[in-house]
Design goal:
0% helix, mainly beta, seven-stranded mixed beta sheet, four-stranded antiparallel beta sheet, globular
């Protein structure tokens, strides 16, 4: 079974940057669609972005477009979320997730993903 482990979260000032990593293990393939989601206290888990199997396509939530970038290194079974120009509203637990469906669609809803990491906390301060 796939295990996804996020890392790289922490405390950062507004306007700063963080890079989150999601390391996968137990996979039959390193090339699955991957998504990033986040959940703030008392809020629903929301879509951040997703990346296609080979990294050729990405989709982002409007709230992070131009600030966040998803990339992947399939040789190392790792997906990244580069977060720049962080805002207070970005504070949340960030999760990576795997979509094992054969569809090329980059889904933006949590139920579309099969496996989830434990999450890593990102706190943006003023």
């Amino acid at each position: 079974q796939v295990q996804l482990v996020e890392s790289g979260g922490g405390l950062v000032q507004a306007g700063g940057s963080l890079r989150l990593s999601c390391a996968a293990s137990g996979r039959a393939s390193s090339s699955y669609k991957m998504g990033w989601f986040r959940q703030a206290p008392g809020k629903e888990r929301g879509f951040v972005g997703a990346i296609s199997r080979n990294g050729g396509r990405t989709d982002y939530a409007d709230s992070v477009k131009g600030r966040f970038t998803i990339s992947r290194d399939n040789a190392n079974n790792t997906v990244y979320l580069q977060m720049n120009s962080l805002k207070l509203e970005d504070t949340a637990v960030y999760y990576c997730a795997e979509d094992r469906s054969l569809s090329g669609v980059l889904y933006g809803t949590a139920p579309s993903y099969n496996y989830w990491g434990q999450g890593t906390q990102v706190t943006v301060s003023s």
